[in-house]
Write a structure and sequence with these properties.
DNA polymerase, domain 1; single chain; globular; 74 residues; 58% helix; mainly alpha
């Protein structure tokens, strides 16, 4: 079964890592409304555009989503 994007993103958390994807993961962890069971790009993108003030650029989400897709293919 395919894991949700949030579950994948949590594997990227690291409070000592200042790379954009790690910071995105760290901040998403504290977002109580994050769609934790979602895996659809469009749904996640829409949510983040409206609620992801902690995400400085949607390019970071795009990079994280690409890594998520690659992890699912492996």
């Amino acid at each position: 079964m395919k894991q949700s994007f949030y579950r994948y993103l949590m594997t990227q958390r690291d409070p000592n890592n200042y790379e954009p994807v790690a910071q995105f993961a760290n901040n998403a962890f504290f977002d109580q409304s994050f769609p934790k069971h979602e895996g659809d790009y469009e749904s996640l993108s829409q949510y983040l555009e409206l609620n992801g003030s902690y995400l400085p650029s949607m390019l970071i989400f795009d990079e994280a989503y690409q890594l998520y897709q690659e992890s699912e293919e492996a």
